[in-house]
Structures are given as structure tokens and as C-alpha cells.
Amino acid sequence: MSDASFESKPIENEAQFGDFFALLKPRVMTLVVFTAFVGLLAAPTAVHPFVGFCAILFIALGGGASGALNMWYDADIDAVMKRTAKRPIPAGKVTREEAFAFGLTLSVFACVFLGLATNWLAGGLLAFTIFFYVVIYTMWLKRSTPQNIVIGGAAGAFPPMIGWAAATGEISTASVLMFCLTFMWTPPHFWALALFMRSDYDDAGVPMLTVTHGRPSTRRHILGYTVLLAALAIALGFTQVGGWVYLSVAIVLNALFLKGAFDIYRRDEDMSEADNFAVERKFFKLSLLYLFAHFGAILIEAGLDKFGVAL
Description:
Pathway: Porphyrin-containing compound metabolism; heme O biosynthesis; heme O from protoheme: step 1/1. Converts heme B (protoheme IX) to heme O by substitution of the vinyl group on carbon 2 of heme B porphyrin ring with a hydroxyethyl farnesyl side group. By secondary structure, this protein is an all-alpha fold. It folds into 2 domains: about 170 residues, Orthogonal Bundle (Tetracycline Repressor, domain 2), CATH 1.10.357.140; about 140 residues. It is about 75% helix and about 0% strand. Helix 2 packs parallel to helix 15, helix 3 packs antiparallel against helix 9 and helix 5 runs antiparallel to helix 6. It is flat and about 50 Å long. The N and C termini lie far apart (about 55 Å).
């Protein structure tokens, strides 16, 4: 770790179940589970309900395990950021050693059992996802480059591809584009958050784009990535998982997202922070709806297809 002198608060009581559950980053896990579920259901291969349940369970555990390992390594950063100061390790509820052992054990368990329950391509993709998030992003990119969230975002983009692989044993154009949708969504989503929470990253010494290149550059990057994201989102509608429902949702949401990104881009730096933050918070909230709505539309298309409904 970058700060070897970091020590969490003294552990006064034995860690409770809720403390270990918090290590799994349950809010992030919700997105992992949902996108993996959509990838599994949208795949053209029928999956036995029990096998499907096991696949989603192990993918969720793998995602949670990477969150625990992230908290183990980033305990020093978490301690100085307001947004993360109450996490189990800096709050003194779980030791770093406990978090590491918990995350590593859960990682091995999830990958092995996903491979056994479905196929080894899915198990291998899950293992690579955990490795990428913990080693490539957390240990390397996050503290070394303002492109941390761009490259590191790949870790959060793998779940729909893993779900698809669990069902089919293959990687397809559709699953790659679902990966790309999440991958390209991640930078504008997190940069919008960083714009109104910059002091957190300053205090922690994390080279987020807002810290290294400033707010105007970050706004330009948000607009650029949003344009690329819109193109990928529309392209996904013309694959085997797309259709009129998906395309309708994608066209409306990407029009709104592009407008939001342009509103951020043209903000006047001389305006009050409160005015700027209002636009950035609005865009950030829309970004939360954006991804769930796109994958929800894919799920609807999958349901219509499986029930033989043609639109």
C-alpha cells in the first residue's frame, strides 16, 4: 500500500455479519448481478433455472470478493475520503487481514464453483475480472494515472459477458457490445461524480482527471466519451439482443445523456459551485438510470423473444 503507516481504528468488538457484507460493496454488486443476469437471459441458449441461479450467485460472490480486496488495499485512501470513511476497515469494524482473507477465499470459491456449475470460460472470465479490478485497477492504475477509471472500468463491464459465457460457453458480438456499453458508460458516470466531489480525491491523493487536468478538461472528456457511448448503445440495438424496444429506449436515453453532457461541457467556470454542481448531480443521477434502463430493455427483448412475441 502507498501508506504503510495506515492503521484502522482499534477493533473493539468482534466483526459482525453486516460488517463482512459491507465489504462486498452491495450497491455495486446490484449492478453486477443485474447485468450478468441480463447477459445470461439474453443468450440464445436455454439454461436450467438451477444452473442459472448458481451462475448468478457465484458471479455476485466474485464481484463482492473483488470489492473486499479493493477495500483491503485502499484502506488508507478510504480513511481520508468523506464518501468512504465509514467503510468497515477505516471505521475499525474489520481488520485489513480479515478483509484480505475473506476476499481471497471468496474469490477462489466463486471462480471454481462457477466453472464447475457452468463452464470454465465463464469461470476464467470471472477470475480475470477479479484480477483486473484488484491488481490492474486498484493496485496500479488508481494511484498512477488520470486514466484510472477509463481502463479500470473494464472490470465492471465484464459481468454481462460472463453471464453470456455461462449460458453459451462462448463470446459473441452481442456480449462484447454489452461489455462496451458498460465500459464506455463508466468514465462519464464517475467523472461527473468527481466534478462535485473533487476535494475527496484531492485529500486522498488519487490522480482523478479533475485533479490532474482540471474541471474544463474533465467536462470535455465527459462530452467526448458520451458521444462514443451513444454510438455503441445504438449499435447494440442491431445485434441479436436488440429490437424496437431496446432501440426506442436507447434513442431517448442517449439524446438525454448527450444533452446532459453538453450542458456540463458549456458550464461557465465563473458561475457558483452550487450552480455547477446542480448540473453535474443531475447528469450523475441520469447516468444511474441510463445503464439499468438499457439492460432492462435488453431483458424485455429477451423475454419477448423467448415467448415468441414479435415487434
